[in-house]
Every structure is written in C-alpha cells, then in structure tokens.
Amino acid sequence: MCFGRCAGCIGYKLLILALLSIVANILLYFPNGETRFASEHHLSKYVECLHGIIGGGFLVFIPAAVFIGLHSDGCCGCFGHEDCGKSCAMLSSVLAAFVGILGSGYCVIVSALGLSYGPYCFTHLERSWIYPFTESSGGYLFEYHKWSECQEPQNIVQWNVTLFSILLVLGGIEFILCFIQIINGVLGGLCGLCCSHEEV
C-alpha cells in the first residue's frame, strides 16, 4: 500500500529529526561545554522550556512510531476485510500527526521567542546578569558588534543563535512532515475504504 510506505518514510524522518532536536536542546544547557551555568540558573528562560526535548523530541516520537508501524502489513482487518483495517489505521494516524504538530509547533514557537528575546548573560555595562537584547525585538541578530556585550558565558550569543535556529528549522520540518501525513492518512483511509467497498 503506497500510503503506508509514505507514512513509514515520514516516520523514519521524524525519528531522526526528534533525536536531533533532543541533542540540540541538551546542548543549549551547556554553553561551551560548561555545566556551571545550568547549575547556577544563568541560562535563558526559553532554554528551560524543554521545547526540543518534549516538543520536538518525545511528542514527535509518538507519531513517528505510529507511522513506522503503518508500513508493516500486519493489519488484521475488520469484518473479514483486510483493507478496512488498513484504512482505519491510516485514519487513526491523523490523530498521531496532530500530536506531532502540537509538539513541533511548540518547538518552533519557543525557538522563535528564544531568538527574539536573546540570551541571558553577564554584561560589562550593567555588571549583572540580564537580557541585554530584549528591546531590539530580534534586531540584535544582525548587529554583530553588539554581541560582545555578553561577557559570560563566552560566545553565548553565537551558541544560542545557532542552536535555537537549528531547533526552529527542525521543528518546522517536523511540522510540515506531520501535516503531509494528515493529508496522506486521510487519502489513504478514504481510498482504502472506497477500494474495500468496490470489492464487496
């Protein structure tokens, strides 16, 4: 069944993207590989939202597992019709895709907010831990000369911008793949039901 193969393909891609999201979110906790900033709570509040671990990670694992399962031909069918069982499975995958959309959407929103808000860092002007770029509404992303305002953690602006951008892209791709599976699941379910009715 071509719809099942398509779902399986989407599932494997989501699995890889979810693992990458988890890794990227974990790296946000350790600027320059140091653990002390996390233990001292000197990280951006958007890092602690776990958007890559929960949203783009575990909530995307659910549809990934469901979609991969659709690729197998183990559907038992219903009322003596195997195609009916496959159609029901394809239609139920739409619900799993919605879970993936919620998770990836959460990842995208928090990543965008993290980029817009900027990092939490120690500045030489204020001599304290602040969000120095909140007023710029993301404009700091193109004002590289201002990035040196953050003294600690070192290179925190580059660290945050890179990882939040990666999570934004990964979440966006996950969102698109889950949306494609909604269309695939509806078409596969309806097509299978039509085919089974025609055979009767």
Tell me about this structure.
By secondary structure, the protein is mainly α. The chain has one domain. Helix content is 66%, strand content 4%. The protein is built from five helices and three strands. A three-stranded antiparallel β-sheet has the order 2-1-3, with no helix packed on it. Helix 1 runs antiparallel to helix 5, helix 3 packs parallel to helix 5 and helix 4 runs antiparallel to helix 5. The two termini are 19 Å apart. The C terminus is likely disordered. It is found in: Membrane. Pfam families: L6_membrane. InterPro entries: L6_membrane.
Task: Characterize this entry briefly.
The protein is mainly α and 200 residues long. It has helices at 2-28, 36-39, 51-70, 82-117, 156-199; strands at 121-123, 129-130, 150-152. The chain crosses the membrane at residues 12-30, 50-70, 91-117, 161-180.
Provide the fold topology:
Layout: H1 2-28, H2 36-39, H3 51-70, H4 82-117, E1 121-123, E2 129-130, E3 150-152, H5 156-199
Antiparallel strand pairs: 1-2, 1-3
